[in-house]
Write a structure and sequence with these properties.
With about 110 residues, the protein is mainly alpha-helical. The protein is built from 4 helices and no strands.
Length: about 110
């Protein structure tokens, strides 16, 4: 049951990270953008699922591995031009780090209080 709860927490957090990063991309660069790619939704779901699964690797190694997935999604799957994919990747990386730290910090705080 704990496995499922952790996976759901990370799925929600990473979906929010991706949604905010794509929204900021659209705000900063306009259209056409990631949402205009016909395969955006399957690629977004795959990216969020893979990054969320890396939560089980743990923080020191899971986060750098998640950066590889964010980079591949922004650069290769969505086929964005060079400044745009870099900004999408950096935004995803920064938001993802905040997400990882917040989730693992909350889990550690919970474990230390019980």
């Amino acid at each position: 049951m704990t496995f499922l709860a952790v996976l759901l927490i990370f799925l929600c957090a990473n979906a929010a990270v991706w949604a905010v990063a794509v929204s900021l991309d659209r705000t900063w660069f306009g259209t056409p953008g990631p949402l205009d790619n016909p395969d955006f939704w399957p690629y977004a779901a795959l990216t969020v699922l893979l990054v969320s699964a890396l939560a089980f690797v743990g923080f020191p190694w899971g986060y750098p591995l998640s950066l590889v997935i964010w980079l591949l999604a922004a650069r290769h799957l969505l086929e964005l031009p060079w400044p745009r994919w870099l900004v999408l990747f950096l935004t995803s990386a920064a938001l993802s780090l905040v997400s990882w730290l917040a989730i693992f910090g909350a889990v550690e705080l919970y474990r230390s209080s019980h």
